[in-house]
Amino acid sequence: xxxxxxxxxxxxxxVTDKNNRESDETKKIVKENPKTPTPTKPEAPKVDDxxxxxxxxxxxxxxxxxxKITIVTPDGxxxxxxxxxxxxxxxxxxxxxxxxxxxxxxxxxxxxxxxxxxxxxxVTDKNNRESDETKKIVKEKPNYxxxxxxxxxxxxxxxxxxxxxxxxxxxILGYPNGDFKPDNNITRAEVAMIFARLLGNSIDFERTxxxxxxxxxxxxxxxxxxxxxxxxxxxxxxxxxxAPQDSITRAEYATIIARMKKIExxxxxxxxxxxxxxxxxxEACSDKQxILGYPNGTFKPDNAINRAEAVAMTNRMLNxxxxxxxxxxxxxxxxxFKDVIDTHWAYDHIYEASLTHEFVRNKDQSEAWIRxxxxxxxxx
Length: 380
Prior knowledge:
3-stranded antiparallel sheet, alpha+beta
């Protein structure tokens, strides 16, 4: 039995012949096996800094054999997180613990996270070996005297919250005469360019040959059309054409969004889409509140969508929310569209989609713009 062969203990061996005469003992002291690593406890967990009033403790990626995390709040309450052996998910009180960027965000009672008090975190492996404690002293939350964002490298401090600075780039452009033409219908080619910019993270796409008989290699949107066709997001007509100059319908636009987000079906519906070919895509987008109907409750799926409606729908899908107050107060004349006044219903949506801007997320997920960097180039 290998479990009974212990290091530094004695094993004796004797032999007996057929006349029952026994030999002297051979004694052996059990040596350490160099191939058998000495069992070690798991490393102490790495834990992000904790600030007064935090509602979570963030624990960095753990070793594979760790099965439990124990967090002790300043008042001595234990929060236990265990790895479910069936689905390998981390859970506390039966609820899955959120994971972001390889870190676990363990929920805690914010009222118990007090300034200058200690939070301890340990982990336990599958052999029930416990790590050393990681101790974190709760920091005081920042308390600035105003709401004005202050630059600090890649982060912006705004009262008690620390926000990551983000950037949005334009995905729709204006026209050479300075107009946006919000009420113009948007063509299939223009839509191809919009979604290619979003997925390909580029303003322009190299012109190229496509499978469509009416989109030549020299067509200004040929690269974008091919890019989205290859991804299964755009389709042509049954006759092998793409009809790049045709206006796109509300149903077609919803279908592109649903395919891009890989969603189908939903509970929210409209009375005028019951037998429509795009019903499952329209319902999916409606469920996510990417699209809205009309005041009379209809969706009008076969109506052409105009440029203002298109950017509003796209912004909702992307969770892009223009900072109306900032735009009105900081937009320079050379950056404005002549035909988009600040009372237009889609004013913030249009500039959200057409301006490069830096911003931080507010707690309600709205955007607080920091500065406008540039206006997008004009449409080709």
